[in-house]
Amino acid sequence: VLWRPTRLRRRSLATMSTKAAHQARKIDDAAFGAIYGSITVMGVLAVSTPDALTAVEMAAMLFASILAVALAKAYADLAANVLSSGRPASWDMVVEAWRLGRTTLIAVNVPTLTFLGSALGLYDVAMAHTLAKFLAVSLLIFYGARIGFRLTGKLLPMFMGGAVAGTVGLSLALLKTFIH
C-alpha cells in the first residue's frame, strides 16, 4: 500500500529534513504574493477578451499588468517602511521591499507561458485564456489546501481550505468583472 490514512501525520518544519524544511518555508513565505497575484491574474483575465488581442499581446498585457502590481506593492512597502522608521530609504530597504513584492510574479509566470504556447500554435488564444484562468485558480486552491493541511494535518481541512480559497478567488474575479 502506497498510502495509508492512519499514517498521515502533520509534518511540522521541525520534523522535516533541513532541505525539505527550507523548501516548505520558501513556499509558505511566498503565500501572500502568490495568492494576491493569482487573484489579480484572474481579475485581469476576467476583463480581457481572448479574441481582441493576439497571443503575444495577451502574454505581454498579462505579465505587464502583474509586474505593475508587484512594483506598486514593493514601492508601497518601501514608502511605509521609510515613514514608519523615519529614515531615508536604504538599499537594504529596497531589496526587502522587492523580496516581498516579487512573490506576486509567481502567479503570472505559467499563465503567461500558456499564451506563448498559443503563439507557437500549440492551441488557440481562447484555450490559452481558459488555461491561464484554470492555473490561477489552481494556485489558490494549492495554497488554501496547504493552509488547511499545515494547521491540522488532516485531509478534510485540506480540502475545505482549497475549496474556500478557490471560491474566494473566483468571487473576487467575478466582482472585478462586474465593476468593469
Written description of the protein model:
The protein has 180 residues and is mostly helical. The chain is 76% helix and 0% strand. The protein is built from 7 helices and no strands. The chain has helices at 18-29, 31-46, 55-85, 91-101, 106-119, 125-152, 155-179. Helix 3 (55-85) crosses helix 4. The chain is globular, with a radius of gyration of 19 Å. The N and C termini lie far apart (52 Å). The relative contact order is 0.16. Residues 1-10 have low confidence and may be disordered.
User: What is the element string, with H for helices and E for strands?
Assistant: HHHHHHH
Discrete helix count: 7
- Low-pLDDT stretches are 1-10
The share of residues in helices is over 70%
Task: Characterize the biggest β-sheet.
Answer: none
Shape: globular
Average pLDDT score: 85
